[in-house]
Amino acid sequence: MKLLHIDSSVLGPHSVSRQVSAAIVDRLRQATPTLDLVYRDLTQTPLAHLSGSHLAAAQGAPAPAELSADLAASAAVLDEFLAADVVVIGAPMYNFTIPSQLKAWIDRVMVAGKTFKYGASGPEGLAGGKRVIFAISRGGYYGPGTPAAALEHLESYLRGVFAFMGITAPEFIVADGIQVGPDHREKALVGALQAASSLRAA
To answer: Could you say which residues bind FMN here (predicted)?
Structure first.
């Protein structure tokens, strides 16, 4: 079984989402020691954001020489995603949505004919056989019924994008309120780590 672990926080060891995503992976590896793990840190090896040249190359136009390394990186991250049985993604909320580094990665794996297609009945996801687990962290409280709920574009965006690729039952472990104060941060982190340790094994 192949596991793809993605981190996108810019905070390194101070990141809550990184701590929680690592705990999720630890739980899954304890349950299945033979897991084949691939790790990608999107802040250490960032992907370029899409450009007109990327889109032209995707349509079959000759790619400029300076784009060759980036196109190879695109192919690599898509292959990693397609090969994975389980995907664990650490995703903090930045300015009410996902980090731009994670958006760049999503842009490389949302590929027509690979992870979705358009048919007579509309779009159809092609990546539905994967288990996807998100470790998300948010500085405030954005759950349903909270004053800031309308600004929640992290979990809602991830649910929508991955459902488009056929992953309709993603799992979320959430650490909320981590910027409200030290006590709130500690409580959120402890709760999220406990949830990670209680994940079903497979």
So the answer is: 9, 15-17, 93-96, 137-140
